[in-house]
Amino acid sequence: MYSMINNPEEKPEELALDALFKEFYDRLVYFSLQLVRDQAQAQDIAQDAFIKYWQERDYVLANKVAVKNYLYSTVRHASLNVIRHSKVVDDYLLQQGTDEPEEHSIMDAIISSEVIAELHAAIDALPENYRVVSVMSYLEGKKNQEIADELGISINTIKKQKYRALELLKVSLSPELFGVVLLLDTASF
């Protein structure tokens, strides 16, 4: 499944689980959060999905796609169960005229969490100064002047660093995802 350098104290299965957790936990929390709208519940659901996977790992195919599908499916079902049993959410959903999220909104949530994860990975790969400015601008939604004031550098430096970061992101991201970054960029002016 995942190959890693063996630590004599840890078993290969545990290392593989750790790698899975590092790769998918944030995505699963984000996916669940879009459904349950509660950070703590979303984190619990994502953690429970890994526990359930660990307990049932012998019944899940040992390839990345099967494990990913299993985890997303587990989080989806657990999130929907939380929605069904939460009075506050039930009242909200009744006011909205629906009993549970539509199937396309669930797919949108999965896609959105994957896009966010890919965007974070691309930004994390940027050089330090570009990364800091990009996070503040594209992920935190801060305006150029706010970033300049916070970092104590000129607004022209911010603009240059954003431009250079965009050039690097253009190379590393798909055209569609780069388009999302450009949309985020226009929102920060």
UniProtKB/TrEMBL annotation:
Signal peptide (residue range): none
GO process annotations (BP): DNA-templated transcription initiation
A GO molecular function held by the record: sigma factor activity
Coiled-coil ranges (or none): none
Alphabetized InterPro entries for the sequence: RNA_pol_sigma-70-like, RNA_pol_sigma-70_dom, RNA_pol_sigma70_bacteroid, RNA_pol_sigma70_r2, RNA_pol_sigma70_r4_t2, RNA_pol_sigma_r2, RNA_pol_sigma_r3/r4-like, WH-like_DNA-bd_sf
Chain ranges of the RNA polymerase sigma-70 region domain: 20-85
Pfam families xrefs: Sigma70_r2 (PF04542), Sigma70_r4_2 (PF08281)
Keywords of this entry: Sigma factor, Transcription, Transcription regulation
SUPFAM superfamilies: Sigma2 domain of RNA polymerase sigma factors, Sigma3 and sigma4 domains of RNA polymerase sigma factors
The UniProt record lists the keyword Transcription: yes
Domain called RNA polymerase sigma factor 70 region 4 type: residue spans: 118-169
NCBIfam families from the UniProt entry: Sig70_bacteroi1, sigma70-ECF
Entry's family note: Belongs to the sigma-70 factor family. ECF subfamily.
Protein's name in the database: RNA polymerase sigma-70 factor
